[in-house]
Amino acid sequence: MKRREFLKGMAASSAGVAASTMIPFGGKALAGRKKKDIGMVKSVKVQCISETSWFDNATLGKDIKAAGGINTNQYDVVYNQENLGGYAALIEVEALDGKKTKYLLDTGWSNDWMDYVFNKDGIDKMLKSKEIDTLIVSHDHIDHYWGIESTLKHQPGIKIYMPGGSMEKSFQLLKGADFKKPQVKNSVPHTGELIVTKVNKIYQPQTGMAIVYFDAPATLQVRGENVVYFNVKGKGIVTVTGCCHPGVLTLINYARRNFAGGEKNYGCYGGLHISVFENWDPKFDDIIAGVKHYDMTKVACNHCTGWIWAEKAKAAGIPIVMGTDKNKSYKKVGTLAKAKTSNVYIGNGDSVMF
Ligand SMILES: [Fe+2]
Ligand SMILES: [Fe+2]
C-alpha cells in the first residue's frame, strides 16, 4: 500500500465517516426520550499533560504499514520505541459549592515519557496522595492506554472507568501482563474499582459531569470511546475527549439531544480526530461548517485534530483557544510542533478554563 493510500485509510476512519456510520447507544431510538438533567458545575479546567502521542507521523505510519495496515490489531504491530509519547489530561472540576475534584483522563503510551510528564506536572504526587483518585480511560488505543503502569505504580487502587468495547488484551494488561511483541507491559495489577462503561447509560462521577460510552469503530481494531461532558453554570456544555473517534459533530449532537440545556454548547477540549496525518479531504471543510454552526465559545484542540484543520478552522472564524510555546521546553518535541507556524494546539503544559 502506498503511503498516500495509507493516509487515506486513516482519514476514512476518522471523524467524517465514523460520524455517519457509528451507532450511538446501540442503535436505540432516542426520539421522544426525556432529556436528562445532569446538574451543573461552576467551572472546569483542563490541563494538557501530554498531547504528543508519538513524535513522528512517518515513523508510526511505517510501523503500522509493516504490520499490515490500519485495520491490523494494535497488539500485532511492532512500534519503534523511540517514537512513543502518550496522551493524558488533568481535569479539575469546581462544583457549585466550591469543592474541587481532579480526574485523570487517559494514561499515555510510553511509560518513560509518562513518568517524565507526570513528574513535570506533579501528577505522580497527586496520584500518590489520592488527590486524584479516578482515571477515565477514553479508549484503549496504544497512545491513551498502554502507559497504564505509569498511573498504577503510584496508586494501584485508583478507580477506573474503562470503555466496554476494550480489547481482551487491554483487560489483561490492567491485571498485569508483559506482552513482549509489541513491547508493552504493566507490572502493577489494578486493585481498585473498575467501572466498565456500557451503552444506554450515563455515568455521573459527580453532579454536573457525565461520562458516556459511544460504541464507535476506531483504527487498529479498537472499538468504543468514553466521552466526558460537563454542564457549566451560565455557560453550557463542555465536551472533553481523548481521540473523538465517534466524530465531533456526533458528540455535540448527543449532548443536544440528551441533556437538559444541551442545546447550548460552550466548548470542547481534546483530540478531534480529523486531519490526523495532516492530509486534507473536502469533508473536513464540512466539519468546519458543522462546528461553526454550533456556535461554541472555546474550541481547545490538539493531538489527532490535525494542525491543518485547526488552522483552517481558526481562519474560518471558529474560536480556537491558542496554546503557548511551553511544549518546546519539553525533553522531546514532535516533528509537527517543531515545524508549526502558530499555536492553534493546546500543547504540552498548556491549560484551558471553561
Ligand atoms: Fe489518540
Ligand atoms: Fe484513538
Structure description:
This protein has 354 residues and is α/β, with parallel strands linked by helices. It has a single domain, classed as Metallo-beta-lactamase, Chain A (4-Layer Sandwich), CATH 3.60.15.10. The chain is built from twelve helices and 15 strands. The protein has a seven-stranded mixed sheet. Strands 9-10-11-12-13-14 form a six-stranded mixed sheet. Strands 6-7 form a two-stranded antiparallel sheet. β9 and β10 form a beta hairpin. The radius of gyration is 19 Å and the shape is globular. The N terminus is likely disordered. Bound molecules: fe (ii) ion (2 copies). The site of one fe (ii) ion has 9 residues, from α6.
Oligomer: single chain
Largest sheet: 7 strands, mixed
Q: Which architecture name does CATH use?
A: 4-Layer Sandwich
Roughly what fraction of the amino acids lie in strands? 15-25%
Class computed from helices, strands and strand pairing: alpha/beta
CATH superfamily: Ribonuclease Z/Hydroxyacylglutathione hydrolase-like
CATH class: Alpha Beta
The total tally of domains equals 1
Number of strands: 15
Helical fraction equals 25-40%
Distance between the termini: 43 Å
Helix and strand topology:
Layout: H1 3-12, H2 15-21, E1 41-50, H3 57-66, E2 88-95, E3 100-105, H4 111-120, H5 123-128, E4 132-136, H6 142-145, H7 148-152, E5 159-163, H8 168-175, E6 177-179, E7 184-186, E8 194-197, E9 202-203, E10 209-217, E11 223-232, E12 236-240, H9 248-258, E13 265-271, H10 282-293, E14 298-302, H11 307-315, H12 335-339, E15 351-353
Parallel strand pairs: 3-4, 4-5, 5-8, 12-13, 13-14
Antiparallel strand pairs: 1-2, 1-15, 2-3, 6-7, 9-10, 10-11, 11-12
The structure holds fe (ii) ion (2 copies).
